[in-house]
Amino acid sequence: MLYDASTRSKELMNFGIEMTNAEYHAHEAISKSKLDAARKSGKHLHDMLYGPPRESTAAFDLGTALHAAALPGENVDEVAVRMPEGMRKTTKEGKSFVSDNKGKIILNSSDGYVLDQMMVSLAVHPFTRSLVVGDLRGKAEQSFFCTDEATGLELKARPDFIFDDLSLIIDLKTTFDASPKGFQRSVANYRYYVQASHYLDVVEGATGTRPQAFLFAVVEKSRPFGAAVYMADAQMIEIGKQHAREDLDNIAKWMAEHNYPGYSERVEEISLPRWMLPKEDGTPTDHQPIELY
Q1: Maximum Cα–Cα distance across the chain
Q2: Of 253, 237, 236, 247, which is closest to residue 204 (Cα–Cα)?
Q3: C-alpha triplet 60, 260, 238: angle, nearest 5°
Q4: Collapsing DSSP states into helix, strand and coil, what is residue 204?
Q5: 182-217 per-position pLDDT tens digit
Q6: Which residues, including other chains, have CB under 8 Å from residue 226's CB and lie 6 or more apart?
Q7: How many angstroms separate the CA atoms of 86 and 34, rounded?
């Protein structure tokens, strides 16, 4: 075992480590989010590694609350609290409420409504219902660590839910468009394909067993709060593996040289994204809406 958990955590089922979310994020191993930073530039990675912590966003907080509400063994009351109807954070009463619940996510009435509706959709979907009601044999938020043989870097992953027999990983995502085409854009834009590959590789490296599949349980965070479940296909996993390898090689190089380069220092020519350009036959391309978070 690469991580000494003797004083802060305990091993579960001979494969996962139970530790708090804060402990996991404080661990220096390379996570998917660090791979994402490295994909932008060395400077972005350096900022993530050594810069001051960034403040959480409303979208991230809502996702955290959903995970705590939906995943077995988690308790949403430990991480979030609902502000009484009509109360505002700017009032004396509201400021006192926020102070009394320091460290917790404060959900206003609108946030609470969205959270409730997402939970309803997850409870109705045939597959995610089994996750929400606790019928699946597995555990949430277990941490895995291994060493990348090519670079010597320590890697980490924390699946939202993994089956006891290691056969399946489930990742819970919120989105504005859970349709196949809509979520494909999210997979590309947020590099979920890299996450799928990275998590499968780390679990295999930590346990010697590779999960058979990586599933995305997706729920919309606006009306009608549609839900869907998608399985990452082999091509997605392979491309994710290739991109993760490029990122890890760069990270190892930058760390060894103590040099974290930013963007190009030259004047670079730039064009429109490919999806905006005319097709080869000269016809206009399909419009691709931009998903904002």
Answers
A1: 64
A2: 237
A3: 60
A4: helix
A5: 999 999 999 999 999 999 999 999 999 999 999 999
A6: 121, 178, 179, 219, 220
A7: 40
Task: Report the 10 Å Cβ neighbour count for 86.
Answer: 9
Residue carrying structure tokens 């989105």:
175
Gap between the Cα atoms of 100 and 274, Å rounded:
51
Look up residue 267 and give its DSSP letter: -
Q: What is the reported pTM? A: 0.88
Q: What is the CATH architecture assignment of 57-254?
A: Alpha-Beta Complex (3.90)
What are the boundaries of each domain within the chain? 57-254
Look-up: residue for tokens 């989010």?
33
pLDDT digits (tens, 9 = 90+) for 2-30: 333 333 333 444 467 889 999 999 999 99
Helix (H) or strand (E) holding 92: helix 92-100
Please give the torsion angle defined by the CA atoms of residues 58, 227, 286 and 190, in that order, rounded to the nearest 10 degrees: 40
